[in-house]
Amino acid sequence: MNLREMTGLQIMQAMLDGHIPAPSITQTMPMKAIKVSEGEITFEAQADERHLNPMGGVHGGFAATVLDSATACAVHSALPAGASYATIDLNVKMVRPVPKNQAVFATGKLINLSTSLAIADATLTDKQGRLLATACASCMVSR
């Protein structure tokens, strides 16, 4: 499997299907892609004792990292073979505390893709669908 010849969607689908390994960040921040289509992806994640702030709550960086993955992978899923991307800014808004030891879901959606810039939004929700955090990211695209 030559990744340089695969579209972003093909790469993301191969990861979801277990044909290629997920990035190592998915070990640090326990998350896995559970659904992908062109321009959209959903991750399931779960914070644990490794992700707590000094007050014992889930650190905001957990939500930010999961949302960064959701926005960036939404962009990746729309790129042609040989193209790459890098996040150039990420704006996160925390709405509710992220629960510890409970599944949360991050859904990223591509908003706009031009030759060199992509914009994507993402939401982080709990099992009941309550909004925990939102994000908007800009990514530089290299073709």
Automatic annotation (TrEMBL):
SUPFAM superfamilies: Thioesterase/thiol ester dehydrase-isomerase (SSF54637). The keyword Kinase does not apply. The keyword Aminoacyl-tRNA synthetase does not apply. Keywords: Hydrolase. CDD domains: PaaI_thioesterase. Residues 55-132 form the Thioesterase domain. Transmembrane segments: none annotated. Pfam families: 4HBT (PF03061). Belongs to the thioesterase PaaI family. This is PaaI family thioesterase.
